[in-house]
C-alpha cells in the first residue's frame, strides 16, 4: 500500500498559525489529504516541507490528533516497533531550504485510524506543523457475490476492500488453495464440492469469508 495527503502550517518564534496565511518560506504540504489502507498492511505517508535558509532543523516528528499535545510516534507506546521515518537530504537555495519526510507504519490496526501531521523544530525555537494533516482510515476487506441475471450458476465474485482503491492485486482461493487468477472479478461455478474466497495480495491473513453452494447471495 502507498502514501497520500493535504496542506497547512505554522510559524517560527513559538507562534502556531495556519500555513495558508502566507508566511514566507515556511510550509508543510502533503501529496494527498486522505489515505485508506487495509488492516495488517503497511502504509506510507509523505510530506514536503520548506523553511528559511537561515534556520537549521533540529528535530522532526510525526504525531496524531489522539493526544492533547504533539507526541512523537516513535515515543508513542501504541506504535512501538511499527513506525519508521525516512527523510531525504535538504536542498537549500538563497532564501529557503526544502526537504521530504516519509512516515511508514506497518502491521496497521483499526485503532491507527487518525489524522497524522508532520512538525519541524528549528535552532531558533521555531516550530512549524502541517495542518490539517493526513486522515488515515484502516479497514478490513470484504467480498461481494454478484449473480448473473440469467442463471444461478456461474456466479461472479467481486473481491474488494472498503477502501475505494485502484491498482490492488487480488488472490483467489478454491477450497483454501491459491489460484493463479489475480483480477478483482472472477467467475466460479459454486457447488457442493468447493468454496471460494479471496484476499488482497500481501494480506492473505485477511482472507474474505468463504462462499459456497449454501451461501446467501444478494
TrEMBL record:
Instruction: Specify the species.
Output: Gadus morhua
- Report the domain of life of the source organism: Eukaryota
What SMART domains does the record tag this protein with? IG
Name of protein:
Immunoglobulin domain-containing protein
Query: Which keywords has UniProt assigned to this entry?
Result: Signal
Query: Could you tell me which Pfam families the record lists for this protein?
Result: Ig_CD22
Q: Which residues form the signal peptide?
A: 1-22
**The keyword Transcription regulation is annotated on this UniProt entry:** no
The Immunoglobulin domain extends over 32-139
Q: Where are the transmembrane segments?
A: none
Amino acid at each position: 500500500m502507498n502514501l497520500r495527503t493535504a496542506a497547512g502550517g505554522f510559524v517560527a518564534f513559538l507562534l502556531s498559525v495556519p500555513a495558508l496565511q502566507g508566511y514566507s518560506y515556511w510550509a508543510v504540504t502533503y501529496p494527498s489529504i486522505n489515505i485508506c489502507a487495509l488492516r495488517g498492511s503497511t502504509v506510507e505517508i509523505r510530506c514536503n516541507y520548506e523553511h528559511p535558509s537561515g534556520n537549521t532543523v533540529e528535530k522532526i516528528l510525526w504525531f496524531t490528533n489522539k493526544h492533547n499535545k504533539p507526541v512523537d510516534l516513535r515515543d508513542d507506546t501504541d506504535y512501538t516497533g511499527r513506525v519508521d521515518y525516512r527523510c531525504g537530504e535538504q536542498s537549500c537555495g538563497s532564501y529557503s531550504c526544502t526537504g521530504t519526510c516519509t512516515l511508514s507504519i506497518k502491521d496497521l490496526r483499526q485503532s491507527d485510524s487518525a489524522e497524522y501531521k508532520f512538525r519541524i523544530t528549528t535552532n531558533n525555537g521555531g516550530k512549524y506543523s502541517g495542518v490539517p494533516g493526513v486522515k488515515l482510515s484502516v479497514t478490513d476487506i470484504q467480498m461481494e457475490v454478484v449473480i448473473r441475471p440469467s442463471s444461478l450458476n456461474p456466479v461472479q465474485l467481486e473481491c474488494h476492500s472498503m477502501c475505494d482503491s485502484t491498482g490492488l492485486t487480488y488472490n483467489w482461493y478454491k477450497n483454501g488453495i491459491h489460484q493463479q487468477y489475480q483480477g478483482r472479478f472472477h467467475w466460479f461455478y459454486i457447488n457442493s464440492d468447493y468454496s471460494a474466497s479471496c484476499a488482497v495480495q500481501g494480506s492473505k491473513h485477511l482472507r474474505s469469508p468463504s462462499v459456497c453452494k449454501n451461501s446467501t447471495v444478494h
